[in-house]
């Protein structure tokens, strides 16, 4: 589910990919993000990093990592690129920012630093982390073009 300030009518799904909840599946995310957005998209590296972090968290901390699946969705809204990672739920445990200096758990700090905002939506047994990337160029190749003459 997108952030509250983005209405569904303003949101257009660009592409979606469902993968087994296994560490090996993460290798497919970089290609999916680059192929969908285009290697020249200004947010491609940040989107790739954040989606990989959210995917890895889903594998490590949710039922997806125990034989489930994780879905990655890229969507566009006016001036915003949205990335969503939906897993099989964490039995009430929600992603959160950990204390500085802790050896693990830095992924959410990275997501917090690289996005224009993020949040969670739980729907039954599924949990979605959404991430917002402000961009005048908020779509994939062919969906919208970079600003210019």
TrEMBL record:
Instruction: Name the InterPro entries on file.
Output: Anti-sigma-factor_SerPK, HATPase_C_sf, HATPase_dom
Domain named Histidine kinase/HSP90-like ATPase is located at 29-133
The reply to whether Transferase figures as a keyword in the UniProt entry is: yes
Report the GO molecular function annotations: ATP binding; protein serine/threonine kinase activity
Q: Which Gene3D superfamilies does its entry note?
A: Histidine kinase-like ATPase, C-terminal domain
The protein's matches in CDD domains, at most eight in alphabetical order, are given as: HATPase_RsbW-like
Provide this UniProt record's keywords sorted from A to Z. ATP-binding, Kinase, Nucleotide-binding, Serine/threonine-protein kinase, Transferase
Please give the superkingdom of this protein's source.
Bacteria
Q: Does the keyword ATP-binding apply?
A: yes
Residue stretches in coiled coil? none
- The name of this protein is ATP-binding protein
Q: Which organism is it from?
A: Actinomadura barringtoniae
């Amino acid at each position: 589910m997108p952030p509250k300030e983005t209405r569904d009518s303003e949101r257009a799904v660009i592409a979606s990919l469902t993968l087994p909840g296994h560490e090996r599946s993460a290798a497919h995310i970089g290609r999916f993000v680059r192929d969908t957005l285009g290697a020249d998209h200004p947010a491609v590296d940040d989107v790739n990093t954040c989606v990989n972090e959210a995917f890895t968290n889903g594998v490590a901390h949710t039922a997806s990592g125990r034989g489930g699946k994780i879905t990655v969705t890229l969507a566009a809204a006016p001036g915003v690129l949205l990335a969503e990672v939906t897993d099989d739920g964490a039995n009430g445990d929600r992603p959160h920012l950990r204390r500085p200096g802790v050896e693990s758990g830095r992924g959410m700090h990275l997501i917090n630093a690289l996005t224009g905002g993020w949040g969670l939506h739980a729907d039954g047994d599924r949990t979605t982390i959404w991430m917002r990337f402000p961009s005048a160029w908020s779509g994939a190749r062919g969906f919208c073009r970079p600003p210019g003459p």
